[in-house]
Amino acid sequence: MSTVLAGIQLLPNLKEDHTGGMIQHSLKLVEESGLKYEVGPLETVIEGDFDSVMTLIKSIQEDAIESGASELLSNIKLHYRKDGVSFADKK
Asked: To 10 degrees, the CA torsion angle through 48, 50, 55, 60?
């Protein structure tokens, strides 16, 4: 399958006003995935094949809930092109 870019923004709803390191832990999962990524001020963008990217998004969401979020709002943007798309195409 073609390479895609996915922008992910996580908004965990916790009982307290802080995220308790949840976002940093999610970024660690991204790093450990081996996929290319760039952290921006409002979202993290991941490059990879569609299935790997979606599997990572699912694991991030499940991990956030297991870590204490009662709810998780995830804003996900997916850039798909038949021949693939990469960070290099965006620069």
From this structure: 60
